[in-house]
# Entry
Amino acid sequence: MATIQQIQTVFPQEADIPEKYRLPGFLEQTEYLIDGEIRHWSGEMNDILSPVMLQNEHGNPEPKIIGRTPLLTPNEALQALDAAVEAYDNGRGYWPNLTVHERIQHIEQFIEKMRQKRQEVVNLLMWEIGKSLKDSEKEFDRTVDYIIDTIDALKEADRTASNFVIEQGIIAQVRRVPLGVGLVMGPYNYPLNETFTTLIPALIVGNTVVFKPAKYGVLLIRPLLEAFRDCFPKGVVNIIFGSGRVLSGAIMQTGKLSFFAFIGTNRGANDLKKMHPKPHVLKSVLGLDAKNPAIVLPDADLENAAKECILGSLSYNGQRCTALKILFVHRQVVKPFMDLFCKELEKLKIGMPWVDDVKLTPLPEPDKAEYLSGLLADAHEHGAKVINEHGGTANNSFFYPAVVYPVNDKMRLYREEQFGPIVPIVPYEDVDTAIQYIVNSSFGQQASIFGNNPAKISMLIDILANQVSRININAQCQRGPDVLPFNGRKDSAEGTLSIRDALRCFSIRAMVATKYDEQSKTIIRQILKDGSSNFLRTDYIL
# Structure
């Protein structure tokens, strides 16, 4: 168990940082990418403050500014948009007219260059967002695997599309084609993986994009700028840096976007979508807020439930949209469950991201600890207590997890998505308490059920299937495996992501059809023989 002294001295001195994980110096990024050209910015800059603080000579932690990134203006945002629009050229551009095999070759080149930057990107994940070394490496490797699996899925889809449909005197070929020009914005908690799970599928099906990295976790895109420049035709990928609201608002207002891929808050997404003057033109793929509940039934295996709920609520400090953010536990078992839960929590190692087996690290959002402390004060005012030792103890950007009990509907914790290391526990007598919470919630991403009675579990499954998009049995909420659909109801999502679903989200079906007569067949045969159409073809990608 972490002691108060360990929490108070969690931040290292600079000399204590292993050489391998030190940054190469102050990272002054001036680069951004527009129209195939890495340009340099000489205007206002944004300081990148690391959540990893360093002790000064007096032993007090001080913030560390690790670099700066450009604060571009709407002028640069519109230049990036114009480059993407020109590259797409109403579907007549070079990129959308490449064959699937040719676009895949560009993506494969990008993978190779991306792999060369693994250590650099992993280090920046640790320094920028406080993610542990193990999880940072996992995020990078999972992203590469996702791109490879996306390539395989597209090959499979293209092989299927190479067939002709003959029905009721009509012969047709159906293929998926790009939507057009899009804006891609990722989240700070998975600034590489979740961003690329929209960016890469959008590109590989033939769209052109403007990409605005997350607010935190922005420097880690810098090592990949040259790879984007070298592996894609000019204007296909344009990468800009700065205020999301300023840059994205300017782009959205033009009405030139065909799609919007965004992972963040539903309020942010709503505000941006409203700026588009042609709402029916804009297709949105959104991953938004969630307040995923767990329901612990009285017959649950409490040891398993406690371990899964620890993983679900506190992996990466609870900063995941799929995290378990409120636990409903039956009164018959709430005491032994909390005892087991707190024992599991005590096993979690605190420290800096590069420390072996570390589980609890500093939080990247400035003033996050102050916000979380405010939630605890509100809960205390309405009758709850922090039940684990040292729970809620803060040291600048580090916040030790707090288990709060008993939580009720008068508390902010009952409604707000805390997105951090606070675990609210709600006792219940009737499972309808948890059901009504889920029904009345503005969010509907996932839920977890812990129990062993098939009849009770099946009853909950049938109710929750119409409220959330994934029901986990005796397991934490999570996104993977990536072949499974990832979506949500209500204010939690729009569109569906998975390896195959993402390819569908960023494309639309189009077809060529004609009468099944000799004249038409002769024309089609000649087109296929000459290979004169990139759309109408029967080649088979191996």
In short: The chain has a mean pLDDT of 97. The chain has two domains: 81-162+177-288+492-504, 292-483. The chain is about 35% helix and 20% strand. The two ends are 54 Å apart (CA to CA).
